[in-house]
Design a protein that fits this description.
Blueprint (H helix, E strand, L loop, with lengths): L13 E5 L5 H13 L15 E5 L10 H4 L2 E4 L6 E4 L1 H6 L3 H10 L6 H7 L2 E3 L13 E3 L13 H17 L1
Parallel strand pairs: 1-2, 1-6, 2-5
Antiparallel strand pairs: 3-4
C-alpha cells in the first residue's frame, strides 16, 4: 500500500533541461513523469508531489520525420463549424514555440484541476537564461540518457558523411 504523504512533508526539487536538438515527444514524456512525481518513491496519483522543471532553449526543439509540418493541433470554438487547426511550423512562425512543448506535456497529464496545478510547475524560456538560479536546479543532460533523445544537426551528419567519403577516396 502506498503511504499517504502530508503536505508539509512534500519536498519539491528543481530540475533544468537544455532542449537544444531534443525530440519533443521524448522530452515531454520525461517532463510529465517528473511533474506528476512518478520519479519519486512516495508517488500518490491524487497528490501534487511533483517537481519543478525548467526548460531552456525551447525554440531549438526538434521533431522526427515530417511532424514539424504535418502534425496538427485541433481546437474547437464551440460554434458549429468552428474547428481550428494549427501546426508546429505555424506556431514557430508566430514565435510561440513554447506552446508546442506545452501541448505535448499537457496531453500526457491526466485531465482535471490537479493536472493544471502540475503543469504550472513547468517553466520554459527562450535561450539559456532563466530567473530561477536561486533555486539551484539540478541539471539533467537528457541527450546522454539515450542516443534517440536528440537529433544531430543536418550539417554534422553531412560533414561526417563527407569525411567518410574522403577517407575512402584517399585509400
Amino acid at each position: 500500500m502506498t503511504p499517504f504523504i502530508k503536505k508539509k512533508d512534500i519536498q519539491n526539487d528543481w530540475y533544468i533541461v537544455n532542449a537544444e536538438n531534443l525530440v519533443v515527444g521524448r522530452l515531454a514524456s520525461y517532463i510529465s513523469k517528473v511533474l506528476r512525481g512518478k520519479n519519486k518513491t512516495k508517488y500518490n496519483p491524487n497528490q501534487d508531489n511533483g517537481d519543478f522543471v525548467i526548460v531552456t532553449n525551447v525554440e531549438k526543439l526538434k521533431f522526427t520525420g515530417k511532424k514539424f509540418t504535418n502534425k496538427k493541433y485541433y481546437k474547437h470554438t464551440g460554434y458549429p463549424g468552428g474547428i481550428k487547426d494549427t501546426t508546429p511550423y505555424e506556431l514557430n512562425g508566430k514565435n510561440k514555440s513554447q506552446e508546442v512543448l506545452r501541448y505535448a506535456v499537457k496531453r500526457m497529464l491526466p485531465g482535471g484541476s490537479l493536472a493544471k496545478k502540475q503543469l504550472s510547475k513547468l517553466k520554459m524560456y527562450y535561450g539559456d537564461k532563466h530567473p530561477h538560479e536561486t533555486q539551484n536546479p539540478i541539471e539533467i543532460n537528457f541527450s546522454k540518457l539515450s542516443r534517440k533523445n536528440s537529433i544531430k544537426t543536418i550539417w554534422a551528419q553531412i560533414k561526417k558523411s563527407k569525411s567518410i567519403n574522403h577517407k575512402k577516396k584517399s585509400n
